[in-house]
Amino acid sequence: MADELWDTMLRFHHEVTLPALRAALLEERGENLAAHVETRREVEILRADTRRLEIMGAETRRELEILGAETRRELEILGAETHRELEILGAETHRELEILGAETHRQFVETHRQFDLSRAENRRHFDVSMESLRHDIGLVAEKVIRVEEKLGQEAAGIRTEMNERFDETHALIRFSHTELERRIHLLEGP
User: Is the pTM of this model over 0.70?
Assistant: First the structure.
């Protein structure tokens, strides 16, 4: 009877259990194959995303280089314009000084001629002329200071804007890489 029981169990095992196990293994193998195909597809998507990010980074670098070159050209133009303005101001100041000098000389000659008539009057004319000259020189100095301040402010503004854009670009790239790494870790699993 034990032999019959044993034979029955073996038949049951061969007829029922082994085919069920084979079917379960084949089903599991199919699911694993499908999951493997899905994982490969997601990895390819991530690679494509990475390539797009690299292209965006290169484009950003090119744009920043172009902005830098444009900024340098603008600064060179501003510098040249400022230099021309300063030359014009210098020439105008020189002409004004020559005119004022000629006027002062004329007044000085006149003062000598009238010295005996009114020493106090001559002194007053001389003081007025010198004050006018000092005032004109002060105006020129103020204009030069304002031009220098404007250039400093413009350069600082451009630097600030470039730094902000660099920071924004770097933050975007860091975020994209972090997100990409997170997605890869999720796909690779623990």
Answer: no
